[in-house]
Amino acid sequence: MSSPAPSVRTALIVGVTGLSGSTLARLLLAEGWTVYGLSRTPAIGLNGVLPVAADLLVPEELENALAGAAPTHVFITTWMRQETEAENIRVNSEMVRNVLRALAPKRSVQHVALVTGLKHYLGPFDAYATGEALPVTPLHEELPRLDLPNFYYAQEDEVYAAAERDGFSWSVHRPHTLIGMAVGNAMNLGTTLAVYASLCKATGRPFRWPGSGAQWSGLSDVTDARMLARQLLWAAETESAHDQAFNVVNGDVFRWSRLWGQIADWFGVEAAGFDGEVHPLEQELAGDAVIWKALATEHGLKEPNLDRLASAWHTDLDLSRPIEVVTDMARSRRLGFSAYQSTEDSFFDLFAQLRQERLIPE
Predict the structure, then answer these.
(1) What is the largest CA-CA distance in the chain?
(2) What residues are labeled active site?
(3) N or C: less crowded end of the chain, CB within 10 Å?
(4) What is the rounded average pLDDT of the residues 186-208?
(5) Sheet holding 50-53: strands in order across?
C-alpha cells in the first residue's frame, strides 16, 4: 500500500493528552497533517487538534464521537492501568478493539501504529524483570514473546486481527522509559525526578539514588518523546517500515552513576549514590504531598497535587531492575531511520520546560 499524498494525511491520535500522544500531535501538525485527538476529556492546550471526547470502553459513545472523522492513520498511544495483569489485558485490548471496530465501516484507515514498550521483553508489571529467564541485552525485536500474560501482546493481537480484516498496514513501537512533559501521566520518570530533586532542595535532603546497583553502574538508555514521535511519523510514511515492530530509543547510552550527579547539579542539590541498598521513591515521597502543596503555593505553581506529577511506583520499577537494560535499534536504522537525541538534553530540556510552565519551582 502506498503512502497517501501529504494533502490527505489525517491522523487520529488515541490518547492525545498523554506524553507520547501530545508530542506526536505537535509534530504532525507542524508537518501539515489534519489531527483528531481522542481522549476521555477534550484536549486542552493543543492548538490545531480537533478534539474527540469519548470513553474507549463504551463502543456506542466511541462510534458517535468518531462519526465525523475518517482518518487515514491511527496512532494508539494510551493504556489504562488495572489492579492485575488479567484486568490489564481485558481492558487495554478492549480499548484497541473498540477503536478499530468503530472505524472499520469508514474504510479510510491505511495504517495503524501501536505504542507499547520494553515490558514486551521484560515482562508485565506483576512479574517485571524477575525470574531466571531475563533476556540478554541489548534487547532486539526478534526476541520471542515471554511465556507470561502481557497486555502488550493482547493489544498487538487486536491490531493484527483488525489489519487482516480491514486491509491496513501496521507498525508497533517499543520505547524505553519515555522522557518528556505531561501532567497526569502514569509513567513519567523525568518529571518524577524533577519533583524529587525540587523537594530535596526545599527540605535540604540529599538527592539519594533510589534504585539497584545494576542500574546504577550498568549501561542504560531512554526514549525522548520527540524521538518516538519522529519514528511514528517515519514508519507511517515509509512503506518498507510497514507491518513491523520497532524498538526506539535516543541512540546513545549512559550510566546513572554519572547522570545522577549531573541532574543534582542542575537543581543545585547534593547527590548521594548507590549505598548498597534500594531506597524506593514511593517511600521517599510518601509524606511529601503536603510539602509539595506548600511549595506550589509559595512559588505559584500550576499543579499542587504531587500525584499528578510524580509516578514514583513506575520510576521504582525502572530504577530497581536487577540487570542493565539497553536497546537495539538496528532494524529501523537499516530501513533509514537516522534520528538521534542526546539523553542529557532530553532531561535538561524537560527540566527547563517544567520551570517555564511553572510546574516546578526555580
Answers:
(1) 59
(2) 119, 152
(3) C
(4) 95
(5) 50-53, 34-39, 10-14, 73-76, 111-115, 169-175, 244-248
